[in-house]
Each structure stands twice: as C-alpha cells, then as structure tokens.
TrEMBL record:
This is tRNA-specific 2-thiouridylase MnmA. The record marks H130, Q348 as: Interaction with tRNA. HAMAP family: tRNA_thiouridyl_MnmA (MF_00144). The gene is mnmA. The keyword RNA-binding applies. It comes from Aeromicrobium halocynthiae.
C-alpha cells in the first residue's frame, strides 16, 4: 500500500463526490472535504436537476462530510469563477463562439485555483468524483476513459496537464453509476438518490439565451439562407449555436420542405445563416492553445477525437503546427476528420484520444466543410 496522503476532496454536494471522498478515506488518506462556493448569489434550491452551486448543495456536502467523519471547509471562489468562467462564457458567445464552461471550470478553478491553494496549504492533491481513470504508462501517468462509458468525463478533463494529473485522484473511474449510488446508500449518505446536475451551473433555469440577453442586451441581426435571402430578424446572435434546429421560428418552409439548421454565425453583423442538415458536415478543423496530458505528439497522430462532452468519437489525423492566430503566433493543431462530424462550432474543444488514453485538447477556431463543392471554412 502506498503511503497515506493529505488530500482535499472537492465535494459538490452530489453523490459522486461524496463517494469519492469516502473511498479516499477508506484508502487510509487524511481527507478534508472542501465545498467550492462559486456563486455570488447562490439560490437556496436548484431548479429541477440543474446547477451545482446552491445553498442546498453546500448543506448536502457538509452532511456527507459529517457522515464520513472528516473536516469540512467552504472555499469562496466566486470571484475567480466569475472572472475565469462566467465572464469568459459571455465574451465567447458575444464573439460568435460556443464555449464549454465545464472545461473552463476544470482548467481554471477545480484543477488550477483549488489545486494551487491545496498545495500551498500542505496538501498532496485533490480528489474529485469525476468518472475517469489514471494509469501508469511507459512515459508516466496517463488519463484514460472511465469504465462506465455513459458517465465518462475524460472529455472535460482533457484540459489537465501532466503536473495537474500527478496531484489528482479519481476513485470512481473503475465504477458504474448504479454501483456508486448503491454504495452511497449503504454508507448512509443522504445524497444517494439525489439527481445528477445538468446544464450550466450558473444558469439556474437552463435558459441560456435569456440569461445571455440579460448580460449582453439586444443586438439585432438577421437570419438568412445560404443565398443571402433574409428570412427574419432576431434580437441577438448569441441565442443561436451551430447545428441548432429548434427555436429558429422561420415561418416560411424551405423549398424542399426539410428542416433548416444554423450553419454559421457572424457576430459583427449579427448574421445567422441557415441551411439543410447535410451542409453541417465538417471534414477538418483547426484548433489553438493545445494542452497536452503528457508529452505532445511530435508528428502526425492517427487517433480519435471527441468534439462535445457526450458526443461520439471520430477517427482522425492530428498534426501539431505553429501559425498565425488572431494576429499572433501560437501553437495549434490541424485535424482531418476521417468520420465527418455535424454541428461543430468555433469555441468548442477537440479532445484527442489514443485508444482510451487522453492525449490532450485544444480550442476550435475554424472548421472546414466536408462537402466536395464547398471547401470553405466557418
């Protein structure tokens, strides 16, 4: 058995983080539960199964720590969360991109600010309830997919560096969710059957467009077809995402009678372009600010990529490159998708896999259509 460690258990108030903390205690580690207060104005109760930053969640985390017999602290990280996650989310949508705030939170809050504070206080690492696995590989520690494919969260952990992984612990990676709930019940944890949180934690009612409208105000523009014909006006391009079908309210049907989807968003003019589903197919993309979970690939890599949190894997070839990005020189990757993907937008993350191992991630800046008659980018 390895030597006991002093660990911070990030306890969200849900079943997964509670059982993860319990398993760390069972392994003989000196565990302190920490709940992150991320909201400046936390709601007393969540709306349905949304959110993870309410007063109710903090109380649930405290009760779980009491059952486990471990110290419990609350760390106020609302300022860091607002600056690094919420403000970034608003700015990305204003720029016509589609961010993933969970990746941003993992990168900047849970495995940067929290880990930095924990190490500064003399702890050895952080335990979380993420479904992912850490394994020793030939070149060091590796991040792998979880056993429970339906709960796998390796995608949102693809932003972690080798140094951060060295101080991370994911006790649930080898378990399935039903077993975790059953274990919580056996341990007497009241959160055993608490619903999982979904959607964006700081948008309590799940109405992203309404929330963004409050932040960004009315920014009128038009919805057009691929020929430039204006179909209607709108109050803000931030209410739309690439691949969106519902809520377009176009009125006049397409000539072929088929549904139309958002193909492109131009944030300066506020123009939203729509067209048929087959025109969503992406065959290649470019992404910047790569973060590698170990040594970066030296050459082209035959691999798979995942393009959204619960999306499918796509066979791909990934090439690390250097090149101009937004007027500056920055590291980047170019990705050829052997299996075209739909609804891929700038701002999303591409996470690279070698089998079950996470190689790294990057932020998508441009995509290239898979259509033979349209090799342009968006």
């Amino acid at each position: 058995m390895s030597a006991p460690l002093r660990l911070v258990a990030a306890m969200s108030g849900g079943v997964d983080s509670a059982v993860a903390a319990a398993r760390a205690v069972d392994a003989g580690h000196d565990v302190t539960g920490v709940h992150l207060a991320l909201s400046r104005n936390p709601r007393s109760y969540r709306s349905g199964a949304r959110g993870c930053c309410s007063i109710e969640d903090s109380s649930d985390a405290r009760r779980a720590a009491d059952v486990l017999g471990i110290p419990f602290w609350v760390w106020d990280m609302s300022e860091e969360f607002a600056d690094e996650v919420v403000d970034d989310f608003v700015a990305e949508y204003a720029a016509g991109r589609t961010p993933n705030p969970c990746l941003r939170c993992n990168e900047k809050i849970k495995f940067a600010a929290v880990l930095d504070r924990a190490l500064a206080l003399g702890f050895d690492g952080v335990v979380t309830g993420h479904y992912a696995q850490l394994r020793e590989g030939p070149d060091g520690l590796e991040l792998h997919r979880a056993v429970d494919a339906g709960k796998d969260q390796s995608y949102v952990l693809g932003v972690l560096t080798a140094e951060q992984l060295a101080h991370s612990h994911f006790p649930l990676g080898g378990s399935v969710k039903t077993d975790v709930r059953a274990e919580a019940e056996r341990r007497g944890l009241q959160v055993a059957h608490k619903p999982d949180s979904h959607d964006i934690c700081f948008v309590a009612d799940g109405d992203n467009a309404g929330w963004l409208a409050d932040k960004l105000g009315r920014r009128p523009g038009t919805i057009v077809d691929e020929d430039g014909t204006v179909l209607r006006e709108h109050d803000g391009a931030y209410a739309f995402t690439i691949g969106q079908r519902r809520g377009l309210r176009l009125g006049v049907p397409a000539d072929d009678g088929k549904p139309r989807f958002v193909l492109d968003i131009e944030p300066v003019s506020g123009t939203v372009t729509v067209g048929p589903r087959e025109h969503l197919a992406v065959g290649a993309l470019r992404a910047v600010r790569p973060l590698w979970c170990g040594e970066p690939p030296a050459d082209e890599l035959d691999c798979t990529v995942q393009l959204r949190a619960h999306g499918s894997e796509h066979r791909a070839r990934v090439r690390p490159v250097d090149g101009p990005v937004d007027g500056a020189v920055a590291d980047a990757v170019e990705v050829d998708l052997l299996d075209p993907a739909e609804g891929i937008a700038p701002g999303q993350a591409v996470v690279v896999y070698d089998g079950t191992r996470v190689v790294g991630s990057a932020t998508i800046t441009t995509t290239e259509s898979a259509r033979a008659d349209r090799a342009g980018t968006r």
